[in-house]
Amino acid sequence: MMPDLGKYAEAVLSAYGVSLLLLVLLIVWTLRQGRRARRALQEVERRRAPDA
């Protein structure tokens, strides 16, 4: 159920495609940065924990 975009179909669909690709890349990058930060925090906490 796609509207008729006429001569602009290629431009509109490619803009949607690029936007979707950028969103996916941003999500992947954010998740990787989150994992990296979590590991760094765990390492700091491990070093600061008193030896038991």
From TrEMBL:
Alphabetized NCBIfam families for the sequence: cytochro_ccmD (TIGR03141)
Cited function: Required for the export of heme to the periplasm for the biogenesis of c-type cytochromes.
Compartments where located: Cell inner membrane
Encoding gene, per UniProt annotation: ccmD
Phylogenetic lineage: Bacteria, Pseudomonadati, Pseudomonadota, Alphaproteobacteria, Rhodobacterales
Protein keywords: Cell inner membrane, Cell membrane, Cytochrome c-type biogenesis, Membrane, Transmembrane, Transmembrane helix, Transport
Topology class, membrane: Single-pass membrane protein
Membrane spanning residue stretches: 12-31
InterPro entries membership: Haem_export_protD_CcmD
Main subcellular location of this protein, as a coarse class: membrane
Protein name: Heme exporter protein D
Entry's family note: Belongs to the CcmD/CycX/HelD family.
Species whose genome carries this gene: Roseobacter sinensis
